[in-house]
Amino acid sequence: MSTVTTQQPPAEVPTLGIDDLRQLMRSVNETTERLERTHIALQQEVARLKGELAEANVQLHRSRSLAALGEMAAGIAHEVRNPLASIGLYAQMLVEDLADRPEGLRLAGRITTAVQRIDTIVRDILRFARDTTVHPQRVRAAQLIDQALESCRTVLADADVAVVGGHRLAESLELEVDTTLMVQALANIIRNAAEAMAESCHEQRTLTVTLGLQRRRLPRGGRAECIVLGVQDSGPGISPEVLERMFNPFFTTRRTGTGLGLAIVHRIVEAHGGHVAVSNRTEGGAVVELCLPPPTASPLEARSTQ
Q1: Is the whole-model pTM more than 0.70?
Q2: N or C: which end of the chain has fewer CB within 10 A?
Q3: Residue 184 belongs to some domain of the structure
Q4: Burial of 237 per CB tally in 10 Å (0-12, 13-18, 19+)
Q5: Residue 194 lies in a domain
Q6: Distance between CA atoms of 269 and 18, rounded to whole angstroms?
Q7: Are 139 and 172 in contact (CB under 8 A)?
Q8: CB atoms near residue 53 (< 10 Å)
Q9: Interstrand relation of 206-217 and 162-165 (parallel, antiparallel or unpaired)
Q10: Using one digit for the tens of pLDDT, what is the confidence trace for 128-146?
Q11: Do 104 and 41 share a structural domain?
């Protein structure tokens, strides 16, 4: 007996209409647009991370350079100090011996003034080179700012600078810092801002002090919560050339000064485990921020663990 095989007719292949093609093209276009947006976002994120990495490397290199310069400067300062003391002593003897000779007395007085000026520079160098030993204590950050502003009252008044104290909005923030050193660092920044505004042609001279808790990129990588003390001025801002060198010892754009003020600020803030951030404001002027780690535990937390 033979078996009869019945052949099935082929299945019909669905055909795509014009509406189906339009929907397909729309889906392809939407997918392409999403991929393009994702690609652009990834490029922007890579560029941002590269910029932050470059900034972190610059800060790390600056820290190492400042440490090496500090050691070298300390050796030079010690070598200069002894002969300088002798010159000062001899100049003082000349002042006493030339009391009846006005012209000679005037020259001897100039020598004494020059010696005092050099001695000031030597002391600043030694202060910069000294190993910064921190004696931390719990203190309100707003209190540090008030003390720094008080120490700069004369400089601010002479420069006709109006102070805006926005730090009062974060009155409760506390730090664990060496009060004397941190007030010195803040005062150096405030004084530098006042002098920059005084030397500019801007009639409106305003200094704004800010305080807040922010999440910041750290120089060695990663992000962390920082207490940020900021000093903003309405001066001419900072050029890229100055921005690159402003923390270098002996670099200054002032007619007077040793050029060690901001270098000392950098050493003090680093000794507290923080870092300094400097930028120009879009509305004009510069902002210098001290980014410091918050206390390890609040007083309430400390009591609860005892």
Answers
A1: no
A2: N
A3: yes
A4: middle
A5: yes
A6: 69
A7: no
A8: 12
A9: parallel
A10: 666 667 889 999 999 999 9
A11: yes
